Each structure stands twice: as C-alpha cells, then as structure tokens.
Amino acid sequence: MAGNPIRFGIVGCAEIARKVARAINSAPNSTVSAVASRSLDKALNFAAVNGLPDTVKVYGGYDQILDDPCVDAVYMPLPTSLHQRWAILAAEKKKHILLEKPTALDVEELDKILDACESNGVQFMDGSMWLHHPRTAKMKEIISDTKLFGHVNYIHSTSTTSGTKQFLEENIRVKPDLDALGALGDLAWYCIGALLWAKDYKLPTQVHALPDVTKNSAGVILSCTASLQWGKSSNETFATIHCSFLSHTSMDIAISGACGSLNVYDFIIPYQETSASFEFTSGAKFAELHIGWNTRPEEVEVVNELPQEALMVAEFARLVGAIKTTGSRPDSKWPQISRKTQLVMDAVKKSIDSDCKPVYL
Amino acid sequence: MAGNPIRFGIVGCAEIARKVARAINSAPNSTVSAVASRSLDKALNFAAVNGLPDTVKVYGGYDQILDDPCVDAVYMPLPTSLHQRWAILAAEKKKHILLEKPTALDVEELDKILDACESNGVQFMDGSMWLHHPRTAKMKEIISDTKLFGHVNYIHSTSTTSGTKQFLEENIRVKPDLDALGALGDLAWYCIGALLWAKDYKLPTQVHALPDVTKNSAGVILSCTASLQWGKSSNETFATIHCSFLSHTSMDIAISGACGSLNVYDFIIPYQETSASFEFTSGAKFAELHIGWNTRPEEVEVVNELPQEALMVAEFARLVGAIKTTGSRPDSKWPQISRKTQLVMDAVKKSIDSDCKPVYL
C-alpha cells in the first residue's frame, strides 16, 4: 500500500480540514492530492498555510475536484446543509467519501447519500475521530468484561464548548441555513455516538428531550439535554446526554456498571496527541467504619503511535484500498454507525420539536 | 468548651452510628455519654465493640435515654419511618437533634419535627457530613467566582452503590415499612443536597423524574433519575441526578459553568480521611489545529485536620453550646437546608408517582 496511497481531495477548506489534511499526509496509506474551495484564492491560501506541496492541485470550485480522475476519495467538511448535494455528486463520480459530522440534516438525507454510495460502490465513513483511537478499543474491552464491570446500567455523556460572542453570532454552527442542528448536530453527535458505541450499536427504544432547550433567535439549538432508554426492564440501560455552546469545554463519558465504573474526560479530543487515558474502578467498597474507600480509580493510559485522526484516515484508506485492489464491496460497518447516530439525533430533534414528548424508536 | 463538652446520646445502634460515635469522641467539644438500642444486649454490644468507656450509660430502649438529664443532644440514625415519633419526643425532652438523612418520609413529617425543635428551643441538623468538609467550602469559593467559573449552567450528580443480594433483600433501605424512600432517600438526598448547595439553596422551579425508575417487588425505589430546572430562561441552571442501589459506587458532582468546570468523584465519602481533592478547569481551549488542549484539569487538594463527620459534630456541638451558655435561639441555617432538600426529594417522589409528570415548586 505504501507505494500506492489513496489520493484524497479535500472538498471545502473549513478549519477542521487543516487537521485532517495533516492526518491524511501522516497516515501511511494516504496523501492529499487536491484541494477545493468555493474560491480559488481560499484554496490557494489553504494549500500555502498548510504547507501542501506544489504537486497538490488546487480548485476554485467543488465540481472540478470531483471530476479529477486522480482523486480516489474526498474528505468533505462542508456545512451540513450542503452534504446531500455534494456527497451524492461525489458518490456518482465514484469518489469514496469521508464526510464530516453531522452527516446530514436528517436520516432521510443521509439515506440518500448512503444509497448513492451503495449504488456506486464507494466507501462511506463519517469524521468521528475518537472511535479510531486505541483508547476507545481499550475502554470497550473493559466495559464488555461482565465480571469486572457488570451490566452497563447508566451512561452520562456531555459535549460542551463555550462559544465566544463572535462564534455565537457568526459561526456556521449557529446558522439555520448552514448547520441547522446547532449544538445537537455539532456536539451531541459525539454523545449519541458514545452511547451507541457503549451499547454495541443497539438502538434505544425511547428518546426524550429534557425541558432545558436553549435556541438562538433564529431557532438554532445552542444547548440541550436528553435521556435515552433501552427497554423497559431494570435489566436495560438508561442514559443522559448534555450538549451546549454556552458552557466551558467538556467531553465526558461516565459509564456505570453493576460492579465497575469508567470515566473519560477528553473522549472527543484527547488532552494530548500521543497518549490518552481514562479512569476505571471496579469493586469499590468503603473502608471499615465507612471512613474512606478500599480503592481509588485507576488511570489507564493508552499510547497511540498516530493521532486518532490519522488512524481514522488510515482505516478509511485501508477500506478504499481493498475496494480498489480486490474489487470488494464497501464495508458496511461505518455507514451503519453513522446512520444509527443520525437516527437517534433525529429522535432528539423530534422530541425537542414536540415539546419534549418521548419519541419511540 | 473543652471542659464542658456537649454530651451525646446515641439513639439506635445502626452501622453508621459506629462512625459517628467515633466522630463525637474525636470532636473537641463533644462526648458520647449514653447509648440506646431496642435491646440492652445490642446496646451493650455496641458499647463494647466501639470501645466506649464504662462511664457511658447503656439503655435498652429509646425512652430512657431521652429522659437522661445528662444527655444534651441525640444522634439519631433510626430508620426513616421512626424519625417523626422519636425526633419529636427528643425535642420535647429538650434534646438537641442530629438526625440521620433522609430526615423524614416527607416534608409534612419533617415540618412536625422542625416545629417541635423550634418550640422547644433545640438545635436541629441532619447528618449530611460532606457539607462540613473544608473541600466543600473551597469548591463553593471556586464556583462562585464569576470571572473564573462564570454562570453555573448545568450540574450533574450521581450517588450509586451496588447492593449485594443480601442488601437488596434484607436491608432496611429497601423495606417499605422502614425506609420507604429507598435509593431516593438514602442516595439522592446527597445529589439533591449538592444541587441546592451549588445554587445557594435557591429551590428549582421544576422537577421531573425520568422514565427509568426501578422498584423492588414491595414498591421501594432501587434506582431513579431526575432533572431539575431553575427558571425558564437560558440564564438559569439545569441539572440531572441519578441514584441507584444497582450500580457500582459513585458519588460525583460535575458542575459546568460558562468558563470553568469542576468535578468531584468522592463528594459524599472522600477516598481518604485526612485530605480530599477535586478537579477544576478554567479557560480550556484547543491547541492549534485542535490536536490537544491548552490545559488539563487541575487537582485541588484540601487537607482536613478532623474527618468530615467530626467537623459536622463539632459544628453541631458549637451551636448547642451557644444555646446552652448564652440562651440563644437555635441556628436556622441547618434546618432550612434539610427542609429544602426534603422538599425537592418530595417533588421527585411525586413526579415518580405521577408517571414522570413535571412537578412545579
């Protein structure tokens, strides 16, 4: 593969594209071969600022990059409202698609994108980087250990970031015509993804927005909380999520099992690039007379040789490479994960829109 | 004070009484002078096991200890259903009362107890030890700093403990005739207390049980989740709490401010007796390219010279001492805190009993 890297076109020069461009060039099986923005100047500037070599083609428009036969795959960090149009066109042009989250405005839109990928035989994956960090696999191993951790009873996940005045007025994430889902799409995507990940992608049966929804004057969600329930019996799982553009940075998952607990505080973007940790406790009891604990949370550290975004790109490029070299079908795991995440996000949105009535899946 | 310690009678030899007996004897202004159980044998055994000196009087019944003129104050760790009867009688016998939580089965009962304390001029305090730890004051200082922390937007608190089979079958905390509030009374008491503490004891306007309530066959709550809302505007605070006898030990408070966050994982019983810590982060931003954070949570450690339960006893004994020596009125702060906690707990209960309908306060 090293001699035949997957050639990426970057469709849209959003801030996040800088991080992913670097990841594409640091993954062992991929390379940036073209960049497109709505204007040529923006694309040229992106190439210059990010030190991309002169061999990288620069386009002032998205159509041209999709017509470039030297582009195998696209990374697409466009505003959500543009995903359907450009992702479908990319699929039709036989470009494999790494699409930023949220993948679409709703699951109907996403289904059109996924159908286009399916019928054109191209790989789809969304840009949830954290799923590719080896820490995530290690956490999964622990919460799946029924003896050590027990049944997962309760999960709480948050994703918050304190938007500046400028962000709250101008950023695409608060504009109804660009990222109409606001904090739900940008932040709760991760929390919902974390719950589904913890539940082995079993869908909740009931989703319930809580009454603290905050919207801006244009009706875009700035902050919300929701509960998710799997089944009705006490043997199932309950979860709460909270996302906000109005609160200090947090990205937590707290998983509460029958005999263990796991906490991670930087699950979306680890504190540092080269290693990440989480806290795990099992069998905690109180000391004699209840004057302390018999144990403290253990910090489990996981070293990663490549940053999680490069691991994501490498996994995507591996799947694309397999399709290119063996003619195999695209892998269905990643599009299914995206679709379930979008489906649950839709349910939260629907509950918000119906005055917090429960939505059954 | 050292020469004239407040003389405690322990009314009920529950397991927790061992911890508090030790605290009473280690606080500088109090001493255990009598112990009562339903049977003399139990009381004698308690005195022996806990190394109480022969000067401590031992009673096989609660009436006698309340008639002992050498008892200034009682510590009462009886099952909740017995609180009303014995706490009122204690107040009538002019005994100051340190009452275990939950203080009563509902606020009507508690009001009768508080009225009895008021009309008999005796001090009331509930057994929430954590409020007396110096860490709690330090946390309060930080979350009150509007520049460092900003407005408190969201709070999440949990209190869980994994009951053994025996606990779930036999413990008084799951018996409808003894502690009918189950996990709500035993565990959520702390979470509700934490929210009220963080909100300077301003009551929420809306309380909402979430649909994951689990009860045992006798109808006692084993696990539940609730949301609490202060006001309707985005300038107010939203909170979620979760309590359970079915999940591994946790006792967390996560407070999310506009520009800071605070996390504590052992707020009810600190990991160790002599110091306790919490995590605090302010102004967290992502590093260039969003490949890490500019800061990590700071661990703030607070050393305590006495265990929190001894600090609780010392504060209670100080108030009792002031009443005894100066004839002052009982302090109203602590009964008010108990009453608000009970009031919110009642609201959660009411919401659970009405199929999760919101309860307005």
TrEMBL record, chains A, B:
<protein>
    <submittedName>
        <fullName>Uncharacterized oxidoreductase At4g09670-like</fullName>
    </submittedName>
</protein>
<dbReference type="Pfam" id="PF01408">
    <property type="entry name" value="GFO_IDH_MocA"/>
</dbReference>
<dbReference type="InterPro" id="IPR036291">
    <property type="entry name" value="NAD(P)-bd_dom_sf"/>
</dbReference>
<dbReference type="InterPro" id="IPR000683">
    <property type="entry name" value="Gfo/Idh/MocA-like_OxRdtase_N"/>
</dbReference>
<dbReference type="GO" id="GO:0000166">
    <property type="term" value="F:nucleotide binding"/>
</dbReference>
<feature type="domain" description="Gfo/Idh/MocA-like oxidoreductase N-terminal">
    <location>
        <begin position="6"/>
        <end position="125"/>
    </location>
</feature>
